[in-house]
Amino acid sequence: MTDKQIVSLIASGDGTAMNQVIDKYAKLMWSIASRILASNAATQDMEECVADTFIYLWENPQKFDEKRGKLKTYLCIVAKSKATDRYRRLSKLYTVPISDDVLMNAFDITSDVFSAETKHSLLAAIESLEEPSKEIIIRRYYHEQKPKEIAFVLDMPVKQVENQLYHSKRKLRATLGSKGGVNI
């Protein structure tokens, strides 16, 4: 049976055809969703992403165009889109809080290394940064996210994130250096 025939059956409400598609492509959709969501989502989020992919096909079978590619390719694109949307949604739910309490907790681990005065100087210097520099610094050094992850969450090019990190670190060095602070 061709992809067009299967999608025609789905369009007519044939649940058996839909079950065949799910059986055939569920593992592939799972691997796509888990690759995108792995660092930010629970298993339930990945399952929902896979389900959303198949629901989308069930509700919009007319959007599949056999001339543009195979059903497998179409489902991969839909799964990637659904996973990316969910990743962005989850990232916004877990936005980096930038309160003094959170910043102080970020440096509790290093309390043996830094004096209280140095911590306060560093926190004040970070607080003085403008957005998005402040959020990029916190995501990079507190949450230990890679520039690529930060760029994805903030919807900006990786090179721009790297440039922001470079310039922010220079500003922090200048600020802390003038106060007898820490080497960054």
Name some characteristics of this structure:
single chain; 184 residues; mainly alpha; Arc Repressor Mutant, subunit A; elongated
Structural class: mainly alpha
CATH T-level fold name of the largest domain: Rna Polymerase Sigma Factor, Chain: A
Average the pLDDT over all residues and give the rounded result: 81
Radius of gyration: 23 Å
CATH superfamily of the largest domain: RNA polymerase sigma factor, region 2, helix turn helix motif
Give the CATH class of the largest domain: Mainly Alpha
Gap between N and C termini: 63 Å
Q: Uncertain spans, ≥5 residues at pLDDT below 50? A: 106-112
Give a count of the beta strands, DSSP E runs of length 2 or more. 0
Largest sheet: none
Number of DSSP helical runs: 9
Integer count of domains: 2
SSE succession = HHHHHHHHH
- Proportion of residues in extended strands: under 5%
Structure explained in plain terms:
The chain is mainly α. It folds into 2 domains: 3-93, RNA polymerase sigma factor, region 2, helix turn helix motif (Rna Polymerase Sigma Factor, Chain: A, Orthogonal Bundle), CATH 1.10.1740; 100-178, Winged helix-like DNA-binding domain superfamily/Winged helix DNA-binding domain (Arc Repressor Mutant, subunit A), CATH 1.10.10.10. The chain has helices at residues 3-11, 15-37, 43-59, 71-93, 100-106, 116-128, 133-141, 147-154, 158-178. The radius of gyration is 23 Å and the shape is elongated.
